[in-house]
Amino acid sequence: NTAFEFSRSRNFLYKLYSIWKSQEQKPNFNSQIRTNEEKTTQMLEELAKKINTNHSFPSANLIYSGSTSSLKMNSGQIGREVLIKETVREILDNIQAKNNNFEAKVASRGAELNPEETIIAKNRALKFVNIFLEFQGKDLNRQLNDQALIELLSFPEGADEKRLEKKVADLAKQTNRQASDAVFNFDKESLEVFEFLPPRDGLELDLEKTKEQITKFIKEIDDKNCEETQCDKSQQFYKKELLVKKTPPKTALDKTNKLGIKKLIGFGDSHYEHSIPNRIHNVAHASKLINNSIVAPGEEFSLVKTLGEVSKRTGFKSAYVINKGATVLGDGGGVCQVSTTVFRSALDAGLNITRRLPHSYRVSYYELNSKPGVDATVYTGNVDLRFVNDTPNHILIHNEVDSKNLYMKVEIYGTSDGRSAEIIDHKTYGYTSPPATQFIPSPDLPTGVRRQIERATPGIKAEFTHLIRDKNDNVISEKKYFSNYRAWGAKYLVGM
Predict the structure, then answer these.
(1) Three-state secondary structure call for residue 455
(2) Predicted local confidence at residue 157, as pLDDT
(3) pTM
């Protein structure tokens, strides 16, 4: 445009002068270069697709919790990546400087272990199999199982910062809550509860301190040898305090009643990952039937009696149960998840347990956050879980079920008389090898599809002592619990 307009003046004499002058001194016409950062970025992103190569960092993945044979290692891969933002800046700066020859900004990404280093990394990851880290609060627990811990490992040492940050953020989502006031409405004659909401402190997880806890714990396990952590034997549970900032509720529980139901005195929880839909339904249904039961002083609580008839007629669905040494469909499969959790809460409260029967076989659900032997089966009649309220006031049994995350807890509220309870001297012995794998037809899966519902588990014997002390720290009860579990083979559901 500048060249075209040259000498095109309306003044004829000036036009002649310009043409004559240009014969002696040729004019220069310069373009004005304008750059577009957005389009340059788009161009570079397309070019980077041809230059970038895949990369990954060494990692470990445990397919099945507790199974050392399912540990898979990724040795990592070194690749390259164009640094888009830095290279765009380089392009634009060089164009303005009229320099068309320069290097793109490219970085090496990833890391790779050689075969010897991969073996060392695998042995390190094996230390974490059957290791469980529990964060304990007043009325809730949060757990990282062996699969989650192994996923957090970076190699050759430490924890992966990005994965750790995401895991702690997930824990915060599960933990953080607003403070809530106590609500307790009931019939004073029948003691039927219409509405009960326990008081809850508002909680906010301390992200940085929780990251420090996990990082230090990983180092603790790293510093032990495999024999010390029993990486290929029994489960090991490590407990840490749930580090939270608390906000108290405005209305306390003791302001809502004169029954002596004032505070939390017992807590138990359990997980039931990998349960089929009907079992998940039954856990929630059975929990609802016994929820908010009030037990008077001196009264014996019976889980079987409180549940009533367990059948399709009363809302239960058909799920897998253990019957005469076989896994078969039966009404109410999953009820024992509730009885086991109630048993754990009664143990924690230090109540007088008058009837408890262990399962004949080890059930994986009950060992997801507990050592073997802390379970209770119920069926009908005398196959029951019972305990006596031997406190001076009424107690209330409150259940909460999370059918999405497959977690439940049982809380017992009452008046503390100063007693304390603990489980000591837990041990397992008498290992026997598991039988052959079983394949069970299932109408709930597509034809030919397999889903593992039980791992091969050796038979064992388990025992522990339940110790109760009074407010003066004197032992008032010392009761041993025994379990004798037969060996249990791996089981798969197979679509029909």
Answers:
(1) coil
(2) 92
(3) 0.75
- The pair of structure tokens assigned to 393 is 């006031």
Element (H, E) at 169: helix 161-175
**437: nearest Cα among 419, 454, 415:** 454
Q: Are 424 and 478 in contact (CB under 8 A)?
A: no
Nearest to 336 by CA among 325, 320, 324: 320
Compute the chain's Rg from CA coordinates.
34
407: exposed, middle or buried (Cβ count in 10 Å: 0-12, 13-18, 19+): buried
Q: Are residues 282 and 316 in contact, defined by beta-carbon separation less than 8 angstroms?
A: yes
Cα angle 31, 37, 42 (rounded to 5 degrees) comes to 120
Q: Which residues contact 479 (CB under 8 A, 6 or more apart)?
A: 353, 465, 466
| Gap between the Cα atoms of 314 and 311, Å rounded | 5
Tell me the C-alpha distance between 428 and 475, whole Å.
25
- Whether the bond between 277 and the residue before it is cis, its omega within 30 degrees of 0, is no
Amino acid at 390: D
246 DSSP β-pair partners? 203
Give, rounded to a whole angstrom, the gap between the first and last alpha carbons of the chain: 78
* Eight-class DSSP state of 253: G
Neighbour tally for 252: CB within 10 Å: 13
Contacts 24+ apart (CB under 8 A), 24-32: 29/2, 29/3
Q: Per residue in 416-462, pLDDT tens? A: 999 999 999 999 999 999 888 888 888 888 888 888 777 788 899 99
